[in-house]
Amino acid sequence: MTSTAPLRAGVVGVGWAGQQHIAAYRALPGVELVAIAGLEQEALDAVAAEHGVPHTHIGWESLIARGDLDVVSVATPTGLHAPIAIAALQAGIHVLSEKPIARTGDEGQAMVDAARAAGRVFEVVFNRRRRGDIAAIRAAVEDGTIGRPYHARATWLRRSGIPSLGSWFTNAEMAGGGPLVDLGVHMLDWTLHIMGEPRITGVSAVTHAELGPRGLGGSQDEASGAGGAKSGGGSAYEVEDFATALLRFEGGGSIILETSWASHRPTPDQFGITLYGTDGGADLSVTGYADPGELTLYTGNGADAVDQVVEAPEGRGHTEVIEEFLAHVADPATWAQHDGSLGLSRARIVDACYASAATGHEIALDENLHIIGGDA
Q1: At what angle do helices 184-194 and 132-142 cross, to 10 degrees?
Q2: For residue 21, which of 225, 227, 322, 317 has the smallest C-alpha distance?
Q3: Do residues 229 and 273 share a domain?
């Protein structure tokens, strides 16, 4: 790790997310993409030929067993994140996993524990916070333009965006949930990041499954990140298609999350955040996955009110995430700081949302984001 030789990388999963990792490893200096793994040889061969990858593996086990990899990206169905990451960490390999960290906080905890025991870097991809417009709102908080942020409303709404009806996405065992764990974890991450990581103390959530169980709301739109052929076909629709949550945080602040894979609303897909602070506010609306979106900062009061339209730069997404991951791997003095705890914290909050929806009650969280009172 301390030599000048490039880091040797592998990627498990060759869908849209996996190809973002493959492209980044191929483009960035100081890393050599050695191998990729998947379940279909034809797809592996096509991706390997496109990106010049020398080795392919059917199944992740043989890729981990190679014994010559420094870093591995995990871009598979959520139910496989934990077993692959833990095996790689135990083999002494640094791991970058797609979001969410796992199906549950307990699975995520096992991954974090494995990273700590192995003394290796483990990080979770939250590429949406890398958008230029999200960064601009965070900068307005940091420089005091907005003052103390006390409430936010984050949304990600689709009309017909269930990621392939009958795929692993709609299987509760494989996915761990629907849009709340899929899209909601992104919204939770960018909102907490913008607001300076306030401690969540309570959650009240509701989930609905109104369209998906009737075979409605499916998408085949690969460009939106919402569709296309997915593994695990043949599943019944077992997860929610709409979720909303109120999160309370220490000091009296609050966050509202609202997300859907399928709902009767305008097209195209839309996501964003509205932020309220003591000295200003912000509103970001992203329609059709535009980058950047429409961002306005609100400051002043009465006759002194100012509405500032911000022209934010385009974000670098996965490339920036992977670039930072590689920088952490290249600096052994910082390894202990990057153990997946951030991704685990998001999973604990999502767990609390599902527990609240299941029980119909608000869920209280302790300082470690564990549900107070045990199993809900």
Answers
A1: 30
A2: 322
A3: yes
